[in-house]
Design a protein that fits this description.
With 271 residues, the chain is an all-alpha fold. It contains eleven helices and no strands.
Length: 271
Amino acid sequence: MNNVFSPKRFGKYFCYDLENAWNNFGLSLIVLGLLPAIVFVVSELFSLIFSGHLMMNNDAIMPMRFVSGAVCLAVACIAFPIKGYGSITDKRAGSSFLMLPASTFEKWLSMMVILCLAAPFCLSALYLGSDTLMGLIFPNSFGTPIVKMPFDKIISEIEIPDGMKIGFTGVAWGNWASSVLFFLLGAMIFKKGKVGKTILALFALSIIISTAMSVAAGAFMDQDANVFLRMFDEDPETAARKIIVFGETVLYIEVAILMGLSYLRLRTVKH
């Protein structure tokens, strides 16, 4: 068992890996976390240069805030795993990685903790912190901070069965984990053009899965064309529960599969 996992050895390796991760994408994390403030300052500067005055209406910056949030997540999911662990496929850096005094399982576990827990936590804290700070200092120009937006009212308007709760935090984490783990897998498989090849692989995989699901659904409907109609007509609440549970289950299974594939790939890395 000591050859697979040793708490003391894992602790030392994790501290090393965490420091290495900070050196590799710590600056990127800070820049992405401060994106709300950066976007706001740049927008105000452009407004001052081209119109001669600062923006006083937060409606103008709101679309940019949403876009910056999407960009932040996309860049983080792509950059963090590739910057942190893309060098594993390099002959020199990869050989040094394999020689580190830790088991394959400990190296994999450290990856999972950093990418799936530490990175999203730190990024969320920085992003929400800078967003809140801008909202408090410039309430008229920047608008309402994300943490004060009435998401509870929006969620309450979604028609779901009484007593049925959707784990929005869990779903958000699942989407982050599935995205970052897919690019981690691409970073450990492809030696060159990691970003482009991983995106192409994701596109091809999406087409294959969509086609397979369409064929399977068509074959199932041919056998019993009224199954879905009966499910919705007889008990809509039960149907909604099944759809929600099915979606969450598929998401978490996807994360588990990507974690397993990452471990298998790590075991087969050779130089």
